[in-house]
């Protein structure tokens, strides 16, 4: 897409004012009580699994991020051990939810807010992760793009298209619908098992046309082992999911889940839909939160 087409796309998918001028939930509004009841009915075997990555105090080999974990009190006898944990959630090492006003484009944030009014030294004045404190409980869908293409993984130069998403729908016998949490698998862990750590600066991911597809399907949450195609070939919008999806659509991003175990579970159960639950911490003004998403079959 040209830069002009990207800007036109941003206008077409804009949800400003759709749920009221003070709305801080964005696409989570697609998750209705009826949607939650239908999602609960997907639980049949009762198997549950986490799709979070382990937190570690060892620096990540690509992003060099680590968790600050310190013991505060260790003593023999009846006293309890205590510790402190500090987490910088964003990036490619921690499974996390992005606050709806975490990412901006050209100084604009979700629902017509400006960076100057929202991004403050003490946190976000609007659209923080605290808005999601009641949790996410909905139907999850895995679209295994690599599996649909008959490969173990996509190469870093593969831009995922709408055709790729719809081919994975057909392969899995599912259709992404309103209020769903969508996860996309490109097989990153399998690629890294062969080639070593992959740079986030050169990585397969969704093209901008997929953002409009997410808008049309009314996807509530997006996650996966890929985000947008990087580096994106535009000087105007370098990250379509972060710079169009989040500030324009109000798309909720669940960044950096581990989907290999989820893909294996879908294969075992022969279905690519499940119940997803996510409960962020109740931290007012926070730009994001490390989370432990649970998928139940």
Task: Itemize the secondary structure elements and their pairings.
Layout: H1 3-12, H2 33-40, E1 48-50, E2 68-73, E3 82-86, E4 96-98, H3 115-118, E5 119-120, E6 123-124, E7 136-144, H4 145-148, E8 159-160, H5 162-172, E9 181-185, H6 188-195, E10 205-206, H7 208-217, E11 221-224, H8 240-249, E12 252-255, H9 260-269, E13 273-278, E14 288-290, E15 294-296
Parallel strand pairs: 7-9, 8-10, 9-11, 11-12
Antiparallel strand pairs: 1-15, 2-3, 4-12, 4-14, 5-6, 7-13, 13-15
Could you explain the architecture of this structure?
The chain has 297 residues and is an alpha/beta fold. It is 25% helix and 20% strand. The protein has a nine-stranded mixed β-sheet with strand order 1-15-13-7-9-11-12-4-14, with helices on both faces. α1 (3-12) packs parallel to α8. The chain is globular. The model has no long low-confidence stretch (mean pLDDT 95).
The percentage helix is 25-40%
For the sheet with most strands, the description reads:
9 strands, mixed
**What gross morphology would you assign?**
globular
Q: What sequence of helices (H) and strands (E) makes up the elements?
A: HHEEEEHEEEHEHEHEHEHEHEEE
In the predicted model, the low-confidence regions spanning at least 5 consecutive residues are: none
CATH topology of the largest domain: Glucose Oxidase, domain 1
Question: What's the overall average pLDDT, rounded?
Answer: 95
| CATH architecture call of the largest domain | 3-Layer(bba) Sandwich
> Given the helix and strand composition, which structural class is it?
alpha/beta
Strand order of the largest sheet: 1-15-13-7-9-11-12-4-14
Instruction: Note the total helix count.
Output: 9
CATH top level assignment of the largest domain: Alpha Beta
* Multimerization state: single chain
The structural domain count equals 2
Beta-strand content bin: 15-25%
Question: Tally of extended strands?
Answer: 15
**Cα distance, first to last residue?**
38 Å
Radius of gyration: 19 Å
């Amino acid at each position: 897409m040209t830069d002009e087409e990207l800007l036109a796309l941003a206008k077409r998918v804009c949800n400003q004012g759709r749920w009221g001028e003070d709305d801080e939930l964005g696409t989570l509004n697609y998750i209705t009580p009826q949607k939650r009841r239908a999602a609960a009915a997907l639980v049949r075997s009762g198997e549950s699994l986490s799709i979070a990555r382990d937190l570690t105090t060892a620096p990540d080999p690509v992003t060099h991020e680590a968790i600050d974990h310190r013991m505060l009190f260790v003593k023999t006898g009846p006293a309890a051990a205590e510790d402190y944990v500090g987490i910088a959630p964003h990036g490619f090492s921690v499974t996390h939810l992005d606050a709806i006003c975490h990412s901006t484009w050209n100084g604009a944030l979700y629902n017509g807010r400006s960076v100057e009014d929202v991004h403050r030294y003490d946190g976000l004045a609007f659209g923080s992760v605290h808005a999601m404190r009641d949790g996410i409980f909905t139907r999850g869908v895995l679209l295994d793009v690599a599996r649909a293409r008959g490969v173990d993984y996509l190469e870093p130069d593969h831009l995922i298209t709408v055709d790729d998403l719809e081919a994975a729908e057909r392969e899995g016998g599912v259709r992404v619908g309103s209020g769903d949490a969508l996860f996309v698998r490109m097989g990153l862990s399998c690629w890294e098992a062969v080639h070593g750590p992959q740079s986030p600066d050169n990585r397969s991911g969704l093209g901008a046309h997929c953002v409009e597809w997410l808008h049309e399907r009314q996807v509530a949450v997006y996650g996966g082992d890929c985000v947008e195609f990087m580096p994106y070939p535009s000087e105007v919008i370098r990250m379509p999911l972060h710079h169009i999806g989040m500030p324009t659509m109000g798309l909720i991003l669940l960044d950096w889940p581990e989907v290999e175990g989820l893909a294996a579970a879908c294969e075992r159960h022969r279905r690519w839909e499940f119940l997803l639950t996510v409960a962020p911490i109740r931290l007012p003004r926070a730009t994001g939160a490390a989370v432990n998403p649970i998928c139940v079959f």
